[in-house]
Amino acid sequence: MPSVKTDARHQSTEIGDATELQDQGRWLLSLLWVVALLLPLLVLGLQWLPHPPFGPPDWALFFAALLALMGVGLGAFAERLRRSEQRLRRVLAQPWLGEMIFSAHGLLLEVSPLVARLSGYTEPELSGLALSELLPAAEFEDFGDKPMPVAAGEVRQTELRCRDGRMLTVELVINRLPGERWQLLLRDLSEGQRSQQHMRQSDIVFDSAREAIMVTDAQARVTAVNPAFTAITGYSAAEVMGLNPHFQSSGRHETVFFARMWQSLAERGHWQGEIWNRRKNGELYPSWQTISVVKNAAGQVNNYVSLFSDIHSLKNAEERMHHLAHHDALTGLPNRLLFANDLERSIERAKRSGKSIALLFLDLDHFKLINDTMGHAVGDKLLHEIAHRLRNSVRAQDGVARLGGDEFTVSLEDVGGVDDVAPMARKIISTLSEPMQLEGNQVTISPSIGIAFYPADGANIEDLTRAADAAMYRAKQQGRKTHAFYSSEIMASAVERVLIERGLREALIGQQLELYYQPQVDMVSGHIVGMEALLRWHHPERGLVQPDAFIGVAEETGLISEIGRWVIQQGCRQARLWREQGFTLGYLWINVSPRQILHNGLEDAIAQSLKDNQLPSGAIQLGVEITESLLQSMPHSTEVLSKLRALGVRIAIDDFGTGFSSLSLLKQLPIDVIKIDKMFVRHLAFDSDSQAITAAMISMTHTLGMGVVAEGVETIEQLGFLREQRCDVVQGFLLGAPLTVSQATQVLIEHREGWPNQQAKQTEQLKGAAA
Predict the structure, then answer these.
(1) SS3 of 751, please?
(2) Are 554 and 571 in contact, with CB atoms under 8 Å apart?
(3) Is 410 helix (H, G, I), strand (E, B) or coil?
(4) HSE-up of 339 (CA within 13 Å, CB side)?
(5) Cβ contacts of residue 71 below 8 Å, gap of 6+?
């Protein structure tokens, strides 16, 4: 700390000069007193000589000259003493300088306020305190009862003992004073050390900061930069010293931008914002910059300090976040949010131009089945391929978006009408329906497209989208893989769907659902061997609603799972009640939706219902009826059906012959019963094709070791043909319509011994036909 010691030596010199002047003053005053006493006596003694050297008049002149000389000398000395005292007062007035006056015996006589503050004592407490209580003994030599400073007049560094035991690092100098007194001047070095430590920390921060720091003078000339500045800009400190920061200019900002910056610095003393700069290699980059003004005590600008960081990666991240927020992560197409924004702008342009917009709403047919059976990985790849094909099927200016799941939209601007849009819809259907190879499997899927026009079908985004969505459902109702244009009837159908969905939710809560039961009769014994549970809805306003009117909505909305669980629970409960009543009912058949098979939990729901209703194996067999479409969902359906088989549940394929069943798949699945669709049974009496198909299905089923049930039997002729072909079981209105629980119970009572007596005539006719 050279500067600190130099200051201390300078202060010691000032104090020494003042002390020397005081000593000189005391000697001079003593000399004047001696002269003043002896000179008159000398003059009087000379007068006694025979010839005195001067007479009385000369005395006056002599004394006057002598006094004048003494006055000049005293005046010069007084001026030197005054200047010395001023310097001494300035030294002692420093807030970091303390003074202690102690006696030759080492007792404190006087202390300055700083000493009291540093030591923790009050000034009265310090008065008379031994100096050894404050300073180490090593600072003094012991000469009896008069300790002498080791190095008087020298600047030394030592420690000051405080009242609380703390030791403060101090710098001191000791000077001798007249009258066997000593003066000790000290300065607290801990504050200086803290200041130096703070400066070192500031240097560390400056050098290690990740943000670039650039300091300029008042004329905006660079005076300092940190290493981060070099890392970000590519310029070394030597290259930029003395330059105006304009050397970083990117050229992307106008003059008004910098004018506002300087205005902010002048008015508020700082500026912050995003600015584009240029690196040494010419690359432009965005930075977030803060500029602060540093002023002196007089309010004048000394420096400008600029901190900035490269936000290029942050900007890229923001762009990625913006892209993710507005685009589908799987397909890269605009999502619902960006679709709405783009369509809003299209509508604004159409308003100005007076032209129309066509909105195509696409939904993939049976995508859920593919996704659930082949796995989500295949489903994702399918969606990605569909998005790619869809984008390539339309013009570059047309908007394509994925709203979510398997729903896509295409918006066409400047269209004339139906004739302009229909070819585009057919092209999209053809392109998307082409087979694709996914994970080693050939997959084929088709879209159903609903089309609505702005402004005819909707004047805003919500109405236009709702209209196109409603038209899409009409396309599905028309057999899928087609397109439909919006009409008022379609909207009425869409409203009907919403009302049905809302009503179904209320039906589940309000116990509006009921199971009806239709008997199944064995063709050999004539006994009722099973019941098929059929769902009915007692609507509070519409009355009894058939399942065809609401099952489709239930499957689309996901309510089918909850409804299915209710059907299973109620069916098992009724089976238990009939068993407790002594009926030997062989089977209770329950219709199961493909969605229930493809979603986990069906086997658990059936197992729990069997357990809750105490239906042991063999007491009554529960059967589930599935549709042919489920055969396409291998191998997931095989796993679920096998688990049901393990529970003792029989499996039947309902409406056999109406789908596209593969015999190889039919053989692989754990199927027990085939149900011939009533479409074939209806024409058995007069249609040879129906007769041939039905006979072939019965023969094939028996060959595979399965049972056969014919449904929809309404005439004796149909019943006779089925008996001839050795059909196992029949059901239909001829044998009994779907019945309430009480009606079905009554029929079971009447059928305990076989077919009721009132049917005897029909039975005889049947036997005659068989003969």
Answers:
(1) coil
(2) no
(3) strand
(4) 25
(5) none
**Cβ-Cβ contacts under 8 Å for 344 (sequence gap 6 or more):** 461
Residue 5 confidence (pLDDT) above 50:
no
User: How far apart are alpha carbons 768 and 771 in whole angstroms?
Assistant: 5
Q: What are phi and psi of 71, to 5 degrees?
A: -65, -40
Going by the DSSP 8-state scheme, the letter that residue 246 receives in this structure is G
Per-residue model confidence (pLDDT) at position 2: 40
Alpha helices for 650-733 (secondary structure H): 663-668, 678-681, 688-703, 716-724
Cβ atoms of 523 and 723 within 8 Å: the answer is yes
> Looking at residues 606-622, what average pLDDT do you find?
75
Residue pointed to by tokens 């600008």: 301
Query: Quick one: how far is CA 90 from the chain centroid?
Result: 64
pLDDT digits (tens, 9 = 90+) for 497-550: 888 889 999 998 888 999 999 999 999 888 888 899 999 999 988 898 888 888
Alpha helices, DSSP H only, in 375-439? 376-393, 418-432
d(CA 220, CA 560): 75
Assess contact for 468 and 421: CB atoms under 8 A.
no
User: Is residue 519 within 8 Å of 533, Cβ to Cβ?
Assistant: no
CA distance 227 to 496: 71
Q: Is residue 25 predicted with pLDDT exceeding 70?
A: no
Pairing of strands 650-656, 483-485: unpaired
- 484 is written with which tokens? 């439909």
554-582 per-position pLDDT tens digit: 887 888 888 988 999 999 899 889 988 88
| Amino acid identity for residue 612 in this structure | D
Rg of the Cα atoms in the chain: 55
* Three-state SS at 134: coil
pTM, two decimals, is 0.48
Q: How far lies 628's CA from each of 34, 58, 365, 705, 752, in Å?
A: 143, 157, 16, 18, 34
Is the separation of the CB atoms in 531 and 585 below 8 Å?
Answer: yes
CB burial of residue 318 (10 Å; 0-12, 13-18, 19+): exposed
Render 340-380 in DSSP notation, one character per residue. HHHHHHHHHHHHHHT-EEEEEEEEETTHHHHHHHH-HHHHH
d(C-alpha 274, C-alpha 625), whole Å: 67
Report the chain's terminal Cα–Cα distance, integer Å: 131
User: What is the spatial distance between Cα 180 and Cα 30, in angstroms, rounded to a whole number?
Assistant: 20
